[in-house]
Amino acid sequence: MFKFRSERLALVARSVSLAALLCSSALVFAQTPGRPATPAEIKAWDIDVRPDFKGLPAGSGSVARGQQVWEAQCESCHGAFGESNEVFTPIVGHTTKADMKAGRVAALAKDSVPQRTTLMKLSELSTLWDYINRAMPWNAPKTLTTEEVYAVTAYILHLGDIVPADFVLSDKNVRDVQALLPNRNGKIAKQFMWGVADKPDVQGSSCRVNCDPKVELTSRLPDYARNAHGNLAEQMRLIGGVRGADTTQPAPSSFVAGANRAAASSAKPPSNLGNAPNPTKLAQQHACLACHGVDNKMVGPSLKDIHAKYKTVKDSAALLATKIKAGGSGVWGSVPMPAQAHVPDADIRAMAEWIAKGDFK
Ligand code: HEC
Ligand code: HEC
To answer: Which of 71, 280, 305, 342 is 20 to 30 Å from the Cα of 51, by its Cα?
Structure first.
């Protein structure tokens, strides 16, 4: 890919200035006529690791190294022992030695614990390795080395008492560890979502030609589950186009069972996604709320705590604006806040005034 790209750029460089080239190179590349992907290009995308460990790169990592990775890059969100319920359901907890023997987590069948942790559900070690490799840390996916992925996976398994403290996980012994997973026999082929009277709610019989344009939803997430993980709109990762629904509000009527398209077009948007940009919306848009809760401490302090700390400071809005733009560390703890220089000044000012005023409703 890189060879191909640089040849292309060299060709273009003959006719345009360097500055123009820098601005237009992405466009030029995108306009290149189609051709089969090269093996190197395919390799860059083809990173999945399968249950039989096909695709797993050779390598290894120790629990001890994994602890360092965890403390530096995972703990702020998932807690020192993988027990935090702040940004996601706990990763570690509620698996027993008896489960490891049976290969089935008893608490899953009994519904005896409030939440299902990752280690309770995990039936394939490849899934844990692959997920961390492609998606974590949440704010910087695909930045871990292969050794770090092995190591931090080993550390999580150690937190769950599945491997000892001196363990080194590698491509040579993954199958042995797979044979220890507490829920390795827990996978079922038919997943009846939310238990719809023993029948799958997707039958695979959907219309493909001359279909009735009227859409009728016959199954949906129960209301009690909508906000099970807090407000999804505030938790989206900093990259990518996907934005979560505001789950503090009831589902828009267009999503309610039985509603059809006519109802959808007249449905009101959720209250905080109105047209006029307001500070809550700005904070969502600039991903501040990925790290700051209004009421709760997440990666950074809660907005209410920030408000309380600065409310007696003169012209605190100006001070907060400077701090937001520059980022910082050491005021609230060891986790740094990245500089927000890419956020327009007017937006920073609006959010600083909002926090200074403390008017979060
Ligand atoms: C900035 C916060 C943040 C950091 C840092 C972070 N995570 Fe996560 N992690 C999340 C969120 C949010 C999810 C849920 C993502 C989703 O479901 O889309 C998640 C999900 C996971 C899951 C999947 C759990 C499941 O059952 O589906 C694993 C495993 C995990 N993280 C491991 C790690 C590891 C290992 C690191 C460090 C290398 C890390 N995380 C760093 C926020 C974070
Ligand atoms: C990647 C996580 C992250 C993001 C994104 C983030 N912050 Fe922060 N923020 C933090 C952390 C961590 C701190 C605490 C830093 C410290 O201890 O000095 C903090 C501190 C702050 C403070 C208090 C500064 C002080 O010195 O007391 C304000 C105000 C603030 N953030 C506003 C914002 C706004 C507004 C945005 C979006 C434009 C934003 N933050 C985005 C993590 C983040």
So the answer is: 71
114 backbone dihedrals φ, ψ, rounded to 5°: -65, -30
Structure confidence at residue 143 as a pLDDT band (50, 70, 90): very high
- 137 preceded by a cis bond (ω within 30 of 0): yes
- Residue 164's alpha-carbon distances to 100, 103, 198, in angstroms, are 14, 18, 41
Ligand 2 pocket, Cβ-based, cut-off 6 angstroms: 139, 283, 286-288, 290-292, 299-301, 306, 320, 323-324, 328-333, 335, 337-338, 340, 343, 351, 355
313: pLDDT strictly greater than 50: yes
What are 327-345's pLDDT values in tens digits? 988 899 888 888 888 888 8
Highest mean pLDDT out of 159-173, 253-267, 270-284, 322-336: 159-173
| 166 φ/ψ sector (left φ>0, alpha ψ -120 to 50, else beta) | alpha
Dihedral, CA of residue 124, residue 130, residue 133 and residue 136, to nearest 10: -70
The per-residue pLDDT for 73 is 95
Percent of the chain with pLDDT over 90: 43
Query: Within 13 Å, how many C-alpha atoms sit on residue 178's CB side?
Result: 16
Cβ within 8 Å of residue 26, ≥6 positions away: none
